[in-house]
Amino acid sequence: MNAGDTLETKTFTITRADLVAYADASGDHNPIHQDEGVARSVGLPGVIAHGMYTLALVGRAVAEWTGGAEVVDVGAKFTSPVVVPAEGGAEVVIGGTVKSVADGLVTLALEVTCDGQKVLGMPKAVVKHVDRA
Amino acid sequence: MPVDPSLVGREFPAPAPLTVTPDRVAAFAAAVGHPGESVPPTFPIVLAFDAMQAFLDAERIDLHRIVHGEQRFAYVRPLAAGDELSATLTVTGLRQIGGADIIATTSEITDATGAVVCTGKATLVHSGGAA
């Protein structure tokens, strides 16, 4: 990977069933990720994906782009909720470019959107550089 | 009901350590479609969540009034199968915006030797609702 490289955009669909599976795997059974009524009662537009599900998809995209390079830093602000409808799903699109390669680390610049709107603020991933000659 | 401002600086350990077993990692990876053999980089949320839940229980804050505002993980070393991890959450900041409490936290995740493996920084947004 070289600075300036554009990475293949990844599109992932999140369904309500995915949120149930993620709740079981992560232990986060917050009902705002399952129950429309509870979500609306706290001012949300509907059932929303766990922010950590969206961030896990970033981890997945990074692993796919880098062949599973060691991640040293990953994170984001959850600036806009990913609303997951009861039928079908929400499509999360993850674009990335290589921002820098320095001191054995690759820093990726990311853009994560749903329905054309950014859902993560300042998403960041830094991986160990692996030379694939 | 606003969160108690004297919380800043207090520590909340996760009630039990988490052993990084291949089954546990595989279940997490399957849920998010993570490829390959590596541990998904957001996996430590499993333990950070336990520490957060301990904090919420102690302060009688309802989980459904919490929305995750921000999360970052900085690694000292990668996780490996067999790691026995512990987490302690520290409340590092508290402010109110528009009736919501913005709670800043840091969770140190350590291995069985006590060495820090990873540091999680999270912001939790608490919408108080009717007191």
TrEMBL record, chain A:
Q: Name one GO cellular component term.
A: fatty acid synthase complex
Q: Which organism is it from?
A: Nocardioides zhouii
Q: Which InterPro entries match?
A: Fatty_acid_synthase, HotDog_dom_sf, MaoC-like_dom
GO terms of molecular function: fatty acid synthase activity
Q: Which Pfam families match?
A: MaoC_dehydratas (PF01575)
Q: Which family does the UniProt entry place this protein in?
A: Belongs to the enoyl-CoA hydratase/isomerase family.
Q: Which residues form a coiled coil?
A: none
Q: Where in this chain does the record put each MaoC-like domain?
A: 4-101
Q: What is the lineage of its organism?
A: Bacteria, Bacillati, Actinomycetota, Actinomycetes, Propionibacteriales
Q: What name has this protein been given in UniProt?
A: Acyl dehydratase
Question: What are the recorded Gene Ontology BP terms?
Answer: fatty acid biosynthetic process
Span-the-membrane segments of this chain are: none
UniProtKB/TrEMBL annotation, chain B:
* Database matches in SUPFAM superfamilies: Thioesterase/thiol ester dehydrase-isomerase
Q: Where is the FAS1-like dehydratase domain?
A: 27-119
- Kindly indicate where the leader peptide sits in this chain: none
Coiled coil segments of this chain:
none
| Listed name of the protein | FAS1-like dehydratase domain-containing protein
